[in-house]
């Protein structure tokens, strides 16, 4: 969201309204957008809060006791900084007179009640951005003034007549004049040569016989206040201020530099030649490749005093592997008298290897001897940096493992090797199960730590010649070259499954995660890198479909399944727009009376050309792709609207239960979504029941407690679904503000055949009674199951014994018959 605060300081907003509800509602909306909010209940209190808190924007109700909004807005303008803070007036009045009063009081904008929240959000964002831009501009102008005043270079502004308009402190130091001495004076006072052909200079014309464009660097003679000469290097640039054409002259005193250059030109010929080619280490070498001269900084860079190396051969101090390249470079320089560059490793006096880049050029002495001047630079750090860059290009930044590019390169090489030697190799494609839930629940920082731990485990369970890579996200690949049989790859996969399943402790969290693995073999499943990766990926998806935490070997039939999955995914993305989803309702009955007391809303996907697609075929895919979020909101809205319609039709009110997926429950705006749906459909919150699974509730128990209390405060009933299939802490279960526990159908199904599951079912009932919670059994299909649950005083049941999930019109027939009876 654009106005939402991600990082840095939150914008502070002052809300002023005598209505406690409006202050609460405004705070709720603004804080959900990431702002910090303070409030006041009248104008007088608002002025006090403003003095203390200094908000960036004020939302002010017009009509309030003690002091109304118009008076408070007027007084606000008189406070220090108050005239620069935007004020939005909030009023029920809409005629021009009241709007004029708001603006005359100093308001920036207004908004009417009832408030259109989207409009309010837009106006708050717009005004904050405008205020921040204004502040930024003021800071920029102050920075520019400071920069000019403290610049080392002289900065002079002149107009088109050459009259000085500004003169910074550095200019004062260069010329000895104060700013007051020269303002309004001609630039000719400081630089007599500047005025030669001044007009054409600024338009790109001629100065002192040379063509110089405005903005080009050139030298010119200046005159100080004491009459002494100064050599100036300057540039000229044009700009406009208040439609006036002006020029900025940036200048630097280079008198000392010019004197140094003159002294340098008078130095010996050898040093002149050397300085023409280098700015680092300088050495002179004869035709026998022996040192004749070394600059003093050899001592600092390589640890040798120059005298220690005079007469020694250059190659004696070069890393042996690099000597052939250096010798060849010497030969080319002497033979062709050309500039030659060579990179090599020099042995420091301490024995350390240092990388050097040297450029050589020949010259002839007065006696006709050939000499080479070498200019050398220590590039060790650059080499290390380039090596780091090369490593980063082929390795994953988080785990340090090879990335997709390096993995494919190694796979291609191993395929070529396997082809020559008629060998097999295997590619394992891994995807961590439910990793996105860890990221969404506990944050990306903890998710990154988990990925690094898993990466280390994978490396520890393969051979030294195998390659483990991270392709991105929670996807890893393993290359197993030179395997003798399929069982070798399967054995590694089993080891990896066990290794990943081991608990991971990060800070206070103990995480349990698993992985799904697909295996493709060369040459049977592909003869190139792309085919093997694609087929291993396909096999991995089959492992996901088989319940996760397993491995699957690729078979050609999987491609058909993959295409089917892709077709379902593509259809799923368009299903909402095409109105292909329908909501079925399954009755929930009282165990003692047998009467319908509620229903569960269950989504179905009806494709015109295929009919109903089972939920098991598209719900997991919707979870993986994130489409479950819009689908879940649609189901919630549809179920609430239908329940309200049945109530309006005169049927006895029933509570509708809607299941929340893991992704929906982790949404930061879930409460806002549910609140909006209830408001739009008109359904009272007490007739809505939201269900979350036990595993979702325990993913982040502290978050679950907070979220459930917010939903309960709205009046919504809450239930834990599939209870008994996950791991619940009774401590947290007591803290959850839930109304019901739902016994998972896997335990109900075995009643009469499995004593352990009977014990679990009866234990859940006792637990619910102890915690004063209702208990619902789902999946009840037989009289034996019904009798057992009734005997143990279960509260509610649902299942085929009482009715299958049916379309709304058929469910309406059921409640009509029951009402009539």
Structure characterization notes:
- The protein has 821 residues and is an alpha/beta fold.
- The protein has 5 domains: 12-146, Rossmann fold; 151-260, PAS domain (Beta-Lactamase), CATH 3.30.450; 267-383, 2-Layer Sandwich (Beta-Lactamase), CATH 3.30.450.20; 399-555, Alpha-Beta Plaits; 572-815, EAL domain (TIM Barrel, Alpha-Beta Barrel).
- The protein has 31 helices and 33 strands.
- The protein has an 8-stranded mixed β-barrel, surrounded by 4 helices.
- A hairpin with a 5-residue loop joins β15 and β16 (353-364).
- It is flat, with a radius of gyration of 40 Å.
- The model is unreliable at 1-7, 197-213 and 274-278 (pLDDT under 50).
- Residues 12-128 form the Response regulatory domain.
- Residues 565-819 form the EAL domain.
- The modification 4-aspartylphosphate is found at residue 61.
Describe how the helices and strands are arranged.
Layout: E1 12-16, H1 20-32, E2 36-40, H2 43-53, E3 57-61, H3 69-78, E4 87-91, H4 96-104, E5 109-112, H5 117-150, E6 154-159, E7 164-167, H6 169-175, H7 179-182, H8 198-202, E8 206-207, E9 210-211, E10 218-223, E11 229-241, E12 244-253, H9 255-265, H10 269-277, E13 281-285, E14 291-294, H11 298-302, H12 306-309, H13 323-336, E15 340-347, E16 353-364, E17 370-378, H14 380-394, H15 404-421, E18 424-432, H16 435-442, H17 444-460, E19 467-472, E20 475-483, H18 486-501, E21 504-506, E22 509-511, E23 515-522, H19 529-545, E24 551-553, H20 557-575, E25 581-590, E26 596-607, E27 611-613, H21 615-625, H22 628-648, E28 655-659, H23 662-665, H24 670-681, E29 688-693, H25 694-699, H26 701-713, E30 717-723, H27 730-735, E31 740-743, H28 745-749, H29 755-770, E32 774-778, H30 783-791, E33 796-798, H31 808-820
Parallel strand pairs: 1-2, 1-3, 3-4, 4-5, 23-24, 26-28, 28-29, 29-30, 30-31, 31-32, 32-33
Antiparallel strand pairs: 6-7, 6-12, 8-9, 10-11, 11-12, 13-14, 13-17, 15-16, 16-17, 18-20, 18-23, 19-20, 21-22, 25-26, 25-33, 26-27
Domain EAL: 565-819
Domain PAS: 140-193, 267-337
GO biological process, one term: regulation of DNA-templated transcription
